Structures are given as structure tokens and as C-alpha cells.
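Running this now, will post back.
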Amino acid sequence: MADRKTTEIGTRRRSRPNDPRAKSPAGETLQETKEEVREGLEEVKSEAGEKGREIRRTAEERADRWTERAGHQASSVARALRVAARDLEEGGDERLAHWGDGAADEVEKMAGYLEAEDPRSMFSDLERLARRNPAAFLGGTFATGLLLGRFLRASEPDGEARLPQDGPVRDRQGRD
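Update: finished.
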């Protein structure tokens, strides 16, 4: 009586299809395909990691250039405040001149910070501030948003992006 799992045919052994010890051409091809897929997946992961690092590096470089430029602009504002303070002082308004000098000092501090620090450390500083004093952080964020909105509205060319005071909103051709 023959064994249910295998039978001898000459010197070759035949196994059942689900036997994990079976070595068939289809099984070998499946293993090779699985290995190729694993290798391909590792290669894709590696390339994605490289691209991610490249994108991060580019973003950090751009943020660093932006903050440095903002620091230079803040320095220009501080110089303008100092000139205005001198004009006020020469005009006899000592009190406003003092406030102008104080404002120029603070803007110069901010300019130095923007020029010297990298964006990553700025973000860490901002996180620490938000954790230490959440109410001041939220208030400052709100005030910054209001000032930014006012600045953006003031810098719009006349007639663009303004809504009419009365009546329906119309497109550029005057249609409702």
C-alpha cells in the first residue's frame, strides 16, 4: 500500500501540491518573484528617503534665505524709525522721539535674531513660548494675523479683490 503523501516513481519523489518541501518550477519562480519584489520595495524606500531628505534640505535652505532677507528688511525698518525719531527730536517732540528709538531698538533685536538664527531653532523657540505662555502666544498670533491681513489688503492694487459695499458680488465682467 502506498503512502498517502508520496509515492515512489523510479528514483523521483512526487509530493502533494501543498507540501512546503515541494520544489517545483512554479514554486521557484514564485520565490524569485517575491525576492525581486522585496528588493524593488527596498530600492523604492531608499529612493523615497533620499528624495525626502533632498526636499527637506531645499526647504530649510529656502526658509533660511527668507528669514535672512526678512532680517535685512527689519534692519531697514529700524533705520527708518531712527531717522523718524531724530526728526521728531529736532522738531521738539522728545516723548515721541524716545518711543521711536525704543521701537527701533526692538526691531533691531528682531532683525538680529532673524539674521542669526536658523529656522529650526526659531520654531523650537516658538514652541517653548507657546508652552510657557499659551494666552500670550494666542494673542500674539491673533494680532499678527490682523496686521498681516491689513497689510495684504493695503498692498492690493486698486479695484482688485475688493467686494462692493452694497449689492450683489459681481465678477470682472459685471455679472452676478
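The first strand starts at residue 7 and ends at 9. More later if anyone needs it.
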